[in-house]
Large conductance calcium-activated potassium channel
Amino acid sequence: PIDLQRVKVHEADACLVLANKYCQDPDAEDAANIMRVISIKNYSDDIRVIIQLMQYHNKAYLLNIPSWDWKRGDDVICLAELKLGFIAQSCLAPGFSTMMANLFAMRSYKTSPDMQAWQNDYLCGTGCEMYTETLSPSFVAMTFPQASELCFSKLKLLLLAIEVKNEERTDSKIAINPKATKIQPNTQGFFIAQSADEVKRAWYYCKACHDDIKDETLIKKCKCKN
């Protein structure tokens, strides 16, 4: 309790419990981390906990914790489950696991005119990461395909998904390629890009000021009230 009080668990938005992926006994590592979750929940039963486990079958023990609540945001990330999931998805879509690994790992790269085109394209892709940004008012009322086409052709950004809120705007979910969905004001977009600065174009874009611009690097914050 003293340690939990010292790190101010009762004031935190969430608590992350990370596993040692280099441990010699994965089950023992999971057991120790589950005990840590129990200790955290006993101290503050309403805190959101996200735990990383090594073995899939150990997820069942979390359900025995009385204050564990998936609806409140408690969640578990299982490394073995992720690896097997990537393998399964790669059977359906070859290259999926490579793409996801490149997205979630930061790599530096250097292209060269001596390399083949596909090698330069691949290296360029390894430098991309996932970013979020609010879509500008110019996107409002567009369908998702229209917005993603504009982002790709005009802003040189890859829009993958958006945050969709319910009618009461009390709850939201991430929708990947929602074909018939129209963009609402202050919609969050999920992008694949080289940097956070590039993604800001989605917020700066103004149809009145930037419609004729061909160079995406010139799309900056404008003074237009539209």
Q: What stands out?
A: The mean pLDDT is 89. The chain is about 35% helix and 15% strand. The first helix runs from residue 2 to 6.
